[in-house]
Amino acid sequence: MKRVMLLIGTNLAIMLVLGVVATLTGANRFFTSTGLDLGKLLMFAAIMGFGGAFLSLWMSKTIAKWSTGARVIETPNTATELWLFDTVRRFSEKARLPMPEIAIYEGEPNAFATGASRNNSLVAVSTGLLQAMTREEAEAVIAHEVAHIANGDMVTLTLIQGVMNTFVFFLARVVGYLVDSFLRRGDQESSGHGIGYMITVVVCDIVFGILASVVVMYFSRQREFRADAGAASLMGTPQPMMAALRRLGGMEAGELPQNVATAGINGRPGWMALFSSHPPLEERIAALAAARR
Q: In which order are the strands placed within the sheet that holds 120-126?
């Protein structure tokens, strides 16, 4: 729950900050100087929506390493580090990927992959996962993260987030303009936007942002099924991935910072699954079992 709310809250905060910047700089006049210009507004919304999404993607590796305290393995110094290094390299070569950065961080069982592209990626594994899982189970989790990179999931989710941010920004300002025009009808002397516009836009940014998060999280859950299937393909059998997921069912997966929450390995059941970046473990296991049959 905490991880989901942080993720949603971060995206809402980005949209609110962008909206405030647009208001304070007078950028809103760009598409309302002669009435509401939907074409200009859509163009401006796309710049703001995709700009924020791709900025987050570009910074994802740096922020992930800083926020988790992950230590990048340049040269393996222990047997565990050597095994991890060789495992990531083996799966990367099989997936025809450049070698990603490899990192270990202190924490409960979890892992994630992030980065701006297939050629600029990071695979990070927690000490809790390495200690609690068998080598085969941990290999399955690593294969899952490599599959995320091979599938281009970071860029795909960024594009989806950019589209949703664009429409949140666009629709919030259309509704704000209409509400403000209604409240100020008959007032021929005033110019610019009134308080009705600003309040409506903020409220709509929040409401539409929550609804957009449901859509983004749906696509995030679908990519988890594909990454599970990718891990099964890389390992030649779905059994290790299924065993890893069953193992996780008896663990409390470590909370990840909001900027990498969609890249972890666990999810939550119940109605909050609508806001979860990962499907319930039972559904993922069932999907792998069905594919095996």
A: 71-72, 101-105, 120-126, 111-117
